[in-house]
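Hi W., the HDE complex you wanted:
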Amino acid sequence: MPPARQPDQSAPRTVSPTGVGYEGPKDGRDPRGQAGDTLTTPNGVRIPDSDHSLKAGPRGPVLLEDFHLREKIMHFDHERIPERVVHARGAGAHGVFTANGAAAKVTRAAVLAEKGLQTPVFVRFSTVLGSRGSADTVRDTRGFATKFYTKEGTWDLVGNNIPVFFIQDAIKFPDIIHAGKPHPDREIPQAQSAHDTFWDFVTLHTEATHHTIWNMSDRGIPRSYRTMDGFGVHTFRLVNEKRQTVLVKFHWKPKLGVHSLTWEEAQIAAGVDPDFHRRDLYDAIENGAFPEWDLGIQILPDTPDEAFEGIDLLDPTKIVPEESAPVQVIGTLVLNANPTNFFAETEQVAFHTGHLVPGIEGTNDPLLQGRNFSYLDTQLTRLGGPNFTQIPINRPHAPVNDNTRDGFHQQAVHTGQAPYTPNSVDDGVPFPANWADGAYVNVPRHVEGDVVRAAPASFDDHFSQPALFYKSLTSVEQQHVIDAYTFELGKCYEQGIKERALTVLARIDERLCAEVAAGLGLPVPKRIKPEKPRPESPALRQIRPTPFPIQGRIVGVVAGPGADLDGIAALRKALEAEGALLRVIAAHGGQLVKGRKVEIVERTFATGRSIEFDAIVVADGAPKDGDFRALVMLQEAFRHLKAVGAWGDGVDVLRAGGIDPGAPGVITGRKSNAKLAGAVVAALGLHRAWDRTPLVRASMVPPTV
Ligand code: HDE
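Structure:
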């Protein structure tokens, strides 16, 4: 390979390209601290006073010669850049991806193939529809975008937590997004799909049915970014050293399992803590509960029809059931560092489906091909020009010598006289590389066809996979889908849209359609037969009987003035051994003191709300009737099927809240001992006490079907 002829852009992210300026503190001080001790202007001139503008006398006027005032205000006036047109709201983290070597047979990309190779990554999670300041827990698809800083260049896997998409052709993207975004006249509702234009679009464009039913399932309201799947959605092509190809689907599988909020929790969180997911990710990483995912691939033969068991692999509204093509784990992602500066990293990171490395190619999926245009184009407006790969978070960790020059925000001081190839002036460098040098050489593929605006006939199947999805869910998950459709369509005003939506549901499942119709108070459409789905795919269920690890889970302990502090300490110890946390909730802030024991109160009945906790336990020593705010917390937790419990006379508080100590998922004991702690840990691992569902729903008046 020719030597790099321009400043090395692979420098660590905290060092400015010119080696001076805002590179952060030196002398071994806290790397998150301020860059220096002395206040300066952007030009490095030391400033004696940044609180008063320069005036002719204390009563003014302000003088034009006050360059500090002008620089300070000028910069402030331009602090904002356009938010992303979609996925504006997000949170990111740094981490490492380690390949396990299993992909070596199918790809030459070292990032995936080389056993034990560790590649730095930056991941950004997001919602799709809301603005930058919108709430985290709205019902929506979540983005799961990963930038791999590989030795062979940057690879971005820009995926979602739902494996299919609303549309089959990129040309419809502006349409679905315009339909999902707030109505243009009032700019409401923010960050949600429960409105007429969204349902108008998805019922007229029935290819959206599959993605929509995933959104209406628990996948639309994840518990945490840490408990979401991720999917590459499109089919990709991998190429190995022998130039053999396979088609693959990428899957991220969270080690903590896939868990969701209940709809009521999501709604409460949107008001009480709109930063719920952002906070959860940040806190988990700060607490050392590093989120982890396995990366897996479904390997599918690269046949001329680009189909597998009758499923068109170029159709992004289709999945390949895991029972037909198992997901093979090829590596693991660990997120282990929070960003130092949200704007510099999370806001300025620029993903692109065209950021590929040798061994990984796209396919002719028309949605993917449109994305390959869009992700470059959008950065011109958002990041202000074509040099965005020079922004620290976007810099490749591979040498760059690209012959691009100039443009807005150019950071490099390019050397050489001949930024073109071939040249003789610069002795011919940079030279093009070849396959053996590790160049990105596209695998030859035969293409022919008439120029038409059309889609293949296989793209017309819009219902068999939504039917498969619904049929595969557990009955609890199916009920959540029914509730979600009923809520969303119930928020629509147009009768015609609701009726059309019912004709779509009738194609998926008879009971689903009938229940939603009853909830809306509308008749069930006649003479529409549901689609015959493939056999069930249990892999699509997220409620599983096996427990998951509980790292980063939070147990709230309600403690009265006479609380058993020894018992609290014992429970904390047991939880911390599993990576979970305990937070004391009391009537006031400060401390609880008993003899020589002290407990810090981290939440009060005024500042805490049930949604913050994965389980709530009342400590012995509580006032018999409790505080009504504590009772509300317990009742909510009970309704949300979370583990609730108590020891000693804390059980009276449960009873005061109307909670039967014998109900499923209610844990009680005389003391806070190993048995009680073990039961709390086991309950957290199952996420919720699903068998409490009938008890909770018993108090709801069912719609007459
Ligand atoms: Fe995106 N998408 N998208 N998208 N997308 C953007 O890129 C676009 C699609 C996804 O955290 C934008 O930098 C088109 C599918 C994620 O920064 C934009 C089409 C999937 C993110 C854009 C799609 C995604 C984006 C907005 C249809 C899942 C956030 C700002 C052809 C596989 C990345 C930006 C981040 C962001 C365009 C469809 C995922 C405008 C035209 C399918 C996770 O370029």
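The pocket of HDE is lined by residues 84-87, 90, 124, 126, 143, 145, 158-160, 165, 170, 173, 233, 349-351, 367, 370-371, 374-375, 378 (CB under 6 Å).

W.
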